[in-house]
């Protein structure tokens, strides 16, 4: 299903895939002796993080996962935050731990991430899980890269030998996604890493069969920069302001200029309604996997 030249792109929506993932998660969790528990830690009061926490809470409730948002004051020291994470690591009732970013400037977020036990690392970004990803031996992988791979798989797209341009060098999106693309299980495409500082970005995107954009810059990629029939996955979420009827109107857009890309691509993810929905579902799937591993360690495999 790779699209036909000259046709308007099909929307690669995330709602159907995310619904299927959540349905299976709910079904599997119903067999557990107790509900898995996800704890999200917010240091400070970032409004975006709190909004996403509400989305997490609603999604968890839908599938039967216990959710708790713990908010620490912005004045919390790095040592205090790590000490709190260690308590969560040692709490047998906690299945998964997530840390919202950004964190206050006096705290090194990498130190916090490194303090999360890989047994409770629901985002798959701890040093241990990232190391396992390098060797292709972990079931807990970063949520957004996994969501991207699942979306591509959902349209039956054959990646064998295809050139895939990833516009991101982020340690939680671009880098793990490149590793996942390099795995033989994902049909051996040829991944290329670009970013904001890449010279002549259009040279790379114009050659690509698949373009995955997670640069955090609104409308970075326009239709004229794409190869005819390319599959375009837009991970970006940007809040922009426009003037309509003399007043400011805020809207959410991706890193891809949607209308122009629709005229060239074969598939294009909308923003919102695309990658984000699947990312949330994958987060719940990771909670499920951590819970299964926990019960297996306890010798309660009969419950799975």
SSE diagram, text form:
Elements: E1 10-11, H1 15-29, E2 37-43, H2 47-63, E3 66-72, H3 78-90, E4 96-99, H4 109-115, H5 127-134, H6 143-154, E5 163-167, H7 174-182, E6 190-194, H8 201-205, E7 210-213, E8 231-234, E9 238-244, E10 247-253, H9 258-262, E11 267-268, H10 275-297
Parallel strand pairs: 1-11, 2-3, 2-4, 5-6, 5-7, 7-8, 8-11
Antiparallel strand pairs: 9-10
Helix pairs in contact: 1-10, 6-7, 6-10
What does it look like?
By secondary structure, the protein is α/β, with parallel strands linked by helices. The chain folds into two domains: 33-122, Rossmann fold (3-Layer(aba) Sandwich); 142-275, 3-Layer(aba) Sandwich (Rossmann fold), CATH 3.40.50. 38% of the residues lie in helices and 18% in strands. The chain has ten helices and eleven strands. The strands form three sheets. It has a six-stranded parallel beta sheet. The longest helix has 23 residues, at 275-297. The two termini are 35 Å apart. Residues 1-5 have low confidence and may be disordered.
Q: What's the helix-strand series? A: EHEHEHEHHHEHEHEEEEHEH
Low-confidence stretches: 1-5
What is the helix tally?
A: 10
Task: Write down the CATH class of the largest domain.
Answer: Alpha Beta
Number of strands: 11
- β-sheet strand percentage: 15-25%
**CATH homologous superfamily assignment of the largest domain:** NAD(P)-binding Rossmann-like Domain
Helix fraction bin: 25-40%
Mind describing the biggest β-sheet? 6 strands, parallel
CATH architecture of the largest domain: 3-Layer(aba) Sandwich
Structural class: alpha/beta
Assign the CATH topology of the largest domain. Answer: Rossmann fold
Nearest-integer average pLDDT: 92
Radius of gyration: 20 Å
Large-scale geometry: globular
């Amino acid at each position: 299903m790779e699209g036909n030249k000259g046709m308007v792109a099909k929307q690669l929506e995330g709602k159907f895939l995310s619904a299927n993932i959540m349905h299976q998660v709910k079904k599997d969790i119903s067999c557990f002796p107790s509900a898995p528990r996800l704890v999200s830690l917010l240091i400070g009061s970032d409004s975006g993080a709190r909004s996403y926490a509400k989305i997490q809470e609603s999604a968890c409730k839908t599938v039967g996962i216990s959710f708790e948002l713990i908010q620490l004051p912005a004045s919390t020291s790095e040592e205090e935050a790590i000490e709190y994470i260690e308590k969560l690591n040692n709490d047998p009732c906690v299945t998964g731990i997530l840390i919202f970013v950004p964190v206050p400037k006096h705290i090194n977020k990498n130190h916090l991430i490194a303090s999360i036990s890989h047994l409770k690392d629901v985002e798959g970004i701890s040093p241990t899980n990232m190391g396992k990803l390098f060797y292709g031996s972990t079931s807990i992988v970063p949520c957004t890269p996994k969501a991207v791979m699942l979306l591509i798989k959902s349209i039956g797209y054959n990646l064998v030998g295809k050139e895939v341009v990833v516009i991101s060098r982020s340690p939680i999106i671009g880098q793990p996604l490149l590793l996942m693309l390099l795995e033989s299980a994902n049909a051996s495409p040829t991944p290329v890493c670009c970013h904001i500082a890449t010279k002549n970005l259009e040279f790379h995107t114009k050659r690509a069969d698949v373009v995955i954009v997670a640069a955090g810059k609104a409308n970075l990629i326009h239709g004229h920069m794409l190869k005819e029939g390319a599959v375009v996955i837009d991970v970006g979420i940007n809040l922009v302001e426009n003037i309509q009827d003399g007043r400011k109107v805020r809207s959410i857009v991706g890193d891809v200029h949607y209308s122009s890309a629709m005229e060239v691509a074969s598939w294009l993810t909308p923003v919102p309604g695309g990658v984000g929905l699947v990312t949330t579902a994958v987060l719940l799937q990771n909670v499920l996997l951590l819970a299964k591993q926990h019960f297996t360690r306890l010798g309660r495999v009969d419950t799975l």
